[in-house]
Amino acid sequence: MYPSSFRARCGRALIDLYSERFRDAIAGGGLVAGLALFVRSTVNVLVTGIAERLAQYHRVGTAGRVAGTAGAIGTFAQLESVTANVGNDLKNAARSIRRSLRLSLAAMACIALGTAASSAVLTLYSSAVLRPLPFPDAERLVRVWLDDPQLGPRRQLNLPDVLDLETQVTTLDRFVATARSRVMFLGERSARRVEGEAVTAGYFDLLGVEPFLGRLFLPDEHLPGSEPVMALSYGTWNSHYGGDPDILGSTVRASDRNYTVVGILPPDFLGTIEDDFPDIEFWIPMVHDRTDEVRRSRTGSGYIWTIGRLGPGIGMAQAEDEVRTIGTRIAQANPETRGPMQMRVEH
Question: Reduced to 3 states, what is the DSSP secondary structure of residue 287?
Answer without folding.
Answer: coil
